[in-house]
Design brief:
Layout (H helix, E strand, L loop, with lengths): L1 H29 L4 H27 L5 H9 L5 H25 L15 H19 L4 H18 L8 H7 L13 H34 L22 H4 L3
Helix pairs in contact: 1-2, 1-4, 1-7, 2-6, 3-4, 4-7, 5-6, 5-8
């Protein structure tokens, strides 16, 4: 079971990174210097592949493709430490392989280092916001089919409302540092992005626990019905049934 999950994570991470980087290369070549058009094309390709991969591979591995998501799932008790480490290693390796695959498809040098500068408080805040929102969406989704459109919609929107264009993924951040293309990031700026993404992931988890647990509690209380008064409960409080933990209700 773990082997199949790791293959799914590796394949998904590879194809996701190849799409992000490859579509950036194609967009930059065809846009004629119009960065807005290039970003729009890059966004559309990313949204499409995310939705497809999550729906396809979600039933096998959960379709994380993202160390931040796997770490959050570990904190929620959904992954063991061993599985989490394996997921993260495969995700990083897969994303890096995806960068090389994109370069090969466009007849570019396989090994590159990006010189695209992406740093500063605005960029770091953007990554924290994008990742926090992603985690909130993931935890709040009941299954792969629901997560497929929600996650892709969030990432597509965050491409445009964040200053960083929403990497929101440590593995793909590392891979994009290996590509001196439209989607790249200078290797020296990777650590700032990853720290911001992990901080955002923690914030997203806390928000999800508060919002989703609260909503579950309210629904449970509203659905609770007192038994008919047959005289045996007169003057006594009737205990409401135990609330189900939000992390169980919102399975990914």
């Amino acid at each position: 079971m773990l082997r199949r999950a790791l293959v799914a994570e590796g394949l998904g991470s590879t194809l996701l990174a190849a799409t992000v980087i490859g579509s950036g290369i194609m967009a930059e070549r065809l846009a004629g210097g119009n960065l807005a058009v290039a970003l729009l094309a890059n966004t559309a390709a990313t949204v499409a592949v995310l939705a497809t991969l999550i729906a396809l591979l979600g039933p096998i591995s959960g379709a994380h493709f993202n160390p931040a998501v796997s770490l959050v799932e570990a904190l929620r008790g959904k992954l063991t430490l061993r599985h989490t480490v394996a997921y993260v290693v495969v995700q990083i390796a897969g994303c890096c392989l995806g960068a090389f695959l994109a370069h090969a498809m466009f007849e570019m040098p396989l090994l590159q280092a990006s010189v695209h500068l992406r740093t500063g408080p605005a960029q770091w805040l953007s990554e924290a916001v994008a990742t926090a929102g992603l985690i909130l969406v993931v935890v709040g989704s009941a299954g792969p089919n629901e997560a497929a459109w929600r996650v892709s919609a969030w990432i597509g929107a965050a491409y445009w409302f964040t200053a960083s264009t929403s990497f929101a993924n440590p593995a793909i951040t590392i891979a994009r540092s290996l590509s001196n293309t439209f989607a790249g990031i200078a290797p020296a700026h990777v650590i700032g992005f990853i720290v911001s993404q992990l901080c955002g992931a923690v914030v997203g988890l806390l928000l999800a626990k508060f919002l989703l647990l609260t909503s579950t509690s309210l629904r449970s209380c509203a659905d609770t019905k007192l038994p008919p008064n047959d005289g045996t409960t007169m003057g006594k409080e009737v205990a409401a049934p135990g609330l189900t933990d939000a992390t169980t209700v919102h399975e990914r």
